[in-house]
C-alpha cells in the first residue's frame, strides 16, 4: 500500500470507529495498516455455537460497493448441526473459521492489479448459522446422542451487516451483491433488498457455486430454518409456502421485486461440493445436467441473467485465485467478471464447450 493510500485508509478507520461506537457495535482493525475492519454488532446476531457474530468492512471508493455473502455449508439435523460432531457448515466467525477476507485471494486480494474490486468498498458478510443466510428460528434436532438446539440467525446476522453498509456508504452508485456457495443462494434475495435501499444505483448480483441444485422444494430446510416468514418484505412472497418454494425461485422473487437487477451465475460443471450436498439431501447426481436445466429455466424467466459454466469440480470463484487462472471457451473468468460489473457492457454467456472441457479441471 502506498503512503497516500495508507493515510487515506487511516482517516477512514478513525471516522468509522467513531460511527461504530456511537451505534453500539465494536469495530477493530488487526493492524494499523490493515484495510479491513472487523465489526461485532449488537442485537440478535449470533453464531450457531453461541459465539459473537462478526463481519468485515473495507472502506475505499464510497460510490462502488461489493457486498459478499460468504459460504460455508448448511445443516438440518443433529448429525449435521452439532458443532461437537461432524458439522456440515461453518459455526463461528473466529480465527480459522474461513470467515476472514484477509485469508482469501481472488476478489479479496487487494494487491493484485487485475482485481476488478481492488478499489471498491467491500462488506464481507460472514456466515455461521447453517441456514444460507436466510433463517430465523430456534430448532431442536433429535439425535442418537441427544437433542441439539440450533439457533438459525442468518437473517439477523445479514441485516446487521447491511445496516453497517447503509451507514458507511449511503450514496453508493454501483452495488454488486455476490455470494459463494451458501451465500450464492442468498445473494438474489439480498440484491433485491439493496436495490430497494439504493433506488438510483446500478445493482448487480453474482452467485458462485449454487445454481446446480435441481431439487423439489426443500420443505424441511425452509421449515427448520424459519425461512418463509423471514423473507424480506421487498419480496412479494404472500403466495409462497415451504412446499412450493424451490431454490431457484429465489431468483424469480428477486427479479419480480427489482426488475432492474442484472443477475449472474458462475458454476463449475461438476462442482464437488454441490454434488456432495445433493447426495446429503438424498438426491445424488452428476451436477451438470441439473445445472444446465436450472440455467435454461432461469434464462427463459430472467432476461438479464448471464452465466458462466466452467469445467471441472472446483467450488465457487470470487474467494480464490481461480478467478485469475480459469479460462473457459477462450474467456478468462476475470475478464468475464469485468464485463459483469462494467455498466457499459453486457456480459456474455460462457459454457464449457464439450464433455472433455467440462470434465477438465
Please explain how this structure is put together:
By secondary structure, the protein is of the alpha/beta class. It has 12 helices and 14 strands. The strands form 3 sheets. It has a 10-stranded mixed sheet, with helices on both faces. A two-stranded antiparallel ribbon has the order 6-7. A two-stranded antiparallel ribbon has the order 12-13. The radius of gyration is 19 Å and the shape is globular.
Feature tags:
disordered N terminus; ten-stranded mixed beta sheet; globular; alpha/beta; two-stranded antiparallel sheet; 19% strand; Rossmann fold; 12 helices; 361 residues; single chain
* Distance N to C terminus: 34 Å
- CATH class placement: Alpha Beta
Per CATH, the architecture is 3-Layer(aba) Sandwich
Number of helices: 12
Main sheet: strand order: 1-2-3-5-4-8-9-10-11-14
Named CATH topology = Rossmann fold
Strand content: 15-25%
Main sheet characteristics: 10 strands, mixed
Q: What is the approximate shape? A: globular
User: How many domain units?
Assistant: 1
Oligomeric form: single chain
- Reading the helices and strands in chain order gives HEEEEHEEEHEHEHHHEHHEHEEHEH
**Overall SS class:** alpha/beta
Q: Which residue ranges are poorly predicted, with pLDDT under 50 across at least 5 consecutive positions?
A: 1-24
- Rg result: 19 Å
Q: Please estimate the helix content.
A: 25-40%
Structure, briefly:
With 361 residues, the protein is α/β, with parallel strands linked by helices. The protein is built from twelve helices and 14 strands. Strand 1 (26-28) and strand 2 form a beta hairpin.
